[in-house]
Design brief:
By secondary structure, the protein is mainly beta. Helices cover about 0% and strands about 45% of the residues. The chain has no helices and ten strands. The protein has a six-stranded mixed sheet, with no helix packed on it. Strand 7 and strand 8 form a beta hairpin.
């Protein structure tokens, strides 16, 4: 079955860290750009991080809201992409999704994982 599954969300205090995983099954995740998106309560979905394929040297890109705090990397042994989130803020509270493209029109999405940051 072709799917993406996120995990690693939870409740953390402001200033804390979490690491999310996006594990692929049914295909090789290394062959695709992978985007991270989030939807906060009452807001539109936001794309905030992306990792390109090895063709582009696994280049990463970040939105201004997370740059310097979040890091995306590939876990090739586990067919996964990781999102390390440090210095979390209450405004990072959202449901986090990975997708099979850096664009919002990706064809494959995970089910999402909740991240809640308390002040």
């Amino acid at each position: 079955q072709v799917q993406l599954v996120e995990s690693g969300g939870g409740l953390v205090q402001a200033g804390g860290s979490l690491r999310l995983s996006c594990v692929a099954s049914g295909f090789n995740l290394d062959d695709l750009d992978v985007g991270w998106f989030r939807r906060a309560p009452g807001k539109q979905r936001e794309g905030f991080a992306c990792i390109r394929t090895s063709r582009y040297d696994d280049r990463t890109m970040y939105g201004s809201s997370v740059k310097g705090r979040f890091t995306v990397s590939r876990d090739k042994a586990n067919n996964a992409v990781l999102l390390q989130m440090n210095n979390l803020k209450p405004e990072d509270t959202a449901v986090y999704y990975c997708a099979s493209d850096c664009n919002d029109d990706a064809s494959l999405w995970g089910q999402g994982t909740q991240v809640t940051v308390s002040s």
